[in-house]
Structure formats: structure tokens, C-alpha cells
Amino acid sequence: WTPASDSDFTDIRYERTATPAGGIAKITIDRPEVRNAFRPQTLVEVSHALELAREDAEVGVIILTGEGPHAFCSGGDQNVRGDTGYIPEGETVGRFHVTDLQIQMRRLPKPVVAMVAGYAIGGGHVLHLCCDLTIAADNARFGQTGPRVGSWDGGFGASLLRDLVGTKKAKEFWLLCRQYDAAQALDMGLVNTVVPLERLEEETIGWCAEMLALSPFALRLVKSSFHAHEDGYAGIQQLAHDANLLFYASDEAKEGREAYKAKRRPDFTQFPRRA
Ligand code: 2NE
């Protein structure tokens, strides 16, 4: 892995590696002293790194992970939680930056893979839910803690979880705040695979390499197709705009554009009305 940004990140690392089929970006939440809990700055940096990965034409897949073997992410940093949200350093009014980040992850037209060692808890659990795939180490533990600390995530944290594990089980997560080990997570469809901790990164890179060998635009459409239903109008919009990106390359669409620029009536009679 090589550092891949000039940005002055304090809470994350942004790195890249090249494979014969394309590049993989890795975003690591680097706050192991608090089990990789996120503060506002952390989320601002993850968001920036996701944007860098999106704009980088070499990058085809993104890994989101946490530093060290003990935690992927333990959710919002309770030390900076105020009465109005999570308070950015030097400010007084709180925010929920994670709301926008979750949507950004789902909108990103490249697969995002959660690489989970140790705890994926609270808002950290929701981050893995928002990833397209999850590769877990055998020491991974999953759970929601919201009601224990006076919080909850009734958005993606409830709906995506329900889609994955069913309503009763999702409610169990939230109403009892239990933790589940990697084998249980695999059994309930919460993760894609479980591997020994020492093989976690190798396995994750293997999955990324498999995706890199596939059609990037087809992968983009696969992702937006799933979200078209789940994300309502916003999901449909993304899938529709993805289709539009392809339509723009057609002679039919080009005729509309060229006619407009030439100030003439477009001639669409040359194109078939497909059955
Ligand atoms: C993650 C977990 C289960 C780990 O347990 P363990 O025993 O392995 O570690 P320990 O000793 O609890 O944690 C190590 C250090 O990390 C801090 C701890 O306070 C401890 O600090 P020291 O005693 O060494 O000084 N730490 C861990 N998680 C933290 C956190 N989230 N904020 C601040 N400090 C944290 C265990 O640590 C745990 O249960 N952590 C709390 C999980 C949690 O409740 N997260 C917040 C959920 S709410 C949320 O994320 C959220 C939301 O609901 C809506 C919007 C946005 C966010």
C-alpha cells in the first residue's frame, strides 16, 4: 500500500495499491485508542477520501477498514457527543456527518468493501451495513448499542439490517443491544465470508481483484440497480442517470444534441421504435 493523497489526514489513512486489473483504494479509520470511534473530523476525512477514490480513474474498488485487530469501528465518539449532535473541534453546534457519509457510500459508483476485524459496533456497524460487501475476520463482533447510550439509527441502520437478517432479528439487534460473533453473522447473512484474522487482508484483496476483472460499468449498474428500489426516488434517479450516461453515446441521443447545436429540427425517423 502506498499513501495516495497530499491531504493532511489526522484520523484516517488513505492508501492505494495496484493490481494487474486495476487499483484498490484503502481507507483506514486510524483511532485505535477509542476502537476507531469516529468524531466529525474522522467522517469529513473519510468522505474526502471516498471522493478521491471516486475521481481516481485507476481505482475500481474501495476498502473501508479500521486500524488494528480490535475494531473496524465503534461508532460515534461519545467523548465529543454534545446535546446537539457530535461537536466538531473548535465549534459548539453538533452535527450528524454520518448521515451524508452513508448516502455517499451508497451513491459511489464503485464497490465499497468493509474489511472487518474486531468490533463493528453502533454507528460502526451501520457503516459496514452501508458497504456493498463485508469480509470479516474470525474475531469480528457485530452489534448495535444505540439504546444503551441514548441513540439509534432508524435509517439505513434499521432498514438495511432488516433487509439482511429479517425484521425479528433486526429488532433483536436494536432492542437488546446484544453482540454477535463472526460465525453468527455469516449464518444470518450479515457478512459475505469469514476468514482467519491473519488472512483478512489477503482475502479482501482477492475479492477486490475478482471485481476488478469484471466490467466496471456493469458493476456500477448492479450497485445502482439494488439501490433503485431501496433508496426510492433517489435510487431510481441514480439508475436512470447511469442509463443516460450510456444513452448519450447512441446515435439517437447524438442526433438530438447535434440538431440543437445546428439550430435545426432533429430527425429521429432514422431510429427504430424498438418493440
Ligand atoms: C467497542 C467496544 C465493545 C469494545 O470493547 P473493549 O472491551 O474491547 O474496549 P473498551 O475498553 O471498551 O474500549 C477501549 C477504549 O476505547 C474507548 C473506551 O472508552 C476505552 O477508552 P479507555 O477506557 O481506554 O480510555 N471507546 C470505545 N468505543 C468508544 C466510543 N464509541 N466513543 C468513545 N470512546 C470509545 C466498547 O468499547 C463499546 O461498547 N464502545 C461503545 C460503542 C458505542 O456505544 N458507540 C456509540 C453508538 S451510537 C452511534 O454510533 C451513532 C448513532 O447511534 C447515531 C448517529 C451517529 C452515531
TrEMBL record:
One of its GO terms (cellular component) is cytosol. It catalyses: 2-succinylbenzoyl-CoA + H(+) = 1,4-dihydroxy-2-naphthoyl-CoA + H2O. GO terms for biological process: menaquinone biosynthetic process. Its cofactor is hydrogencarbonate. The record marks Y86, Y248 as: Important for catalysis. Hydrogencarbonate binds at Q144, T145, G146. Pathway: Quinol/quinone metabolism; 1,4-dihydroxy-2-naphthoate biosynthesis; 1,4-dihydroxy-2-naphthoate from chorismate: step 6/7; Quinol/quinone metabolism; menaquinone biosynthesis. Keywords: Lyase, Menaquinone biosynthesis. Its EC number is 4.1.3.36. Substrate binds at residues 35, 74-78, 86, 119-123, 145, 151, 248, 263. It is an enzyme of class 4 (lyase). One of its GO terms (molecular function) is 1,4-dihydroxy-2-naphthoyl-CoA synthase activity. HAMAP family: MenB (MF_01934). Converts o-succinylbenzoyl-CoA (OSB-CoA) to 1,4-dihydroxy-2-naphthoyl-CoA (DHNA-CoA). PANTHER family: 1,4-DIHYDROXY-2-NAPHTHOYL-COA SYNTHASE, PEROXISOMAL (PTHR43113:SF1), NUCLEOSIDE-DIPHOSPHATE-SUGAR EPIMERASE (PTHR43113). Belongs to the enoyl-CoA hydratase/isomerase family. MenB subfamily. This is 1,4-dihydroxy-2-naphthoyl-CoA synthase. The gene is menB.
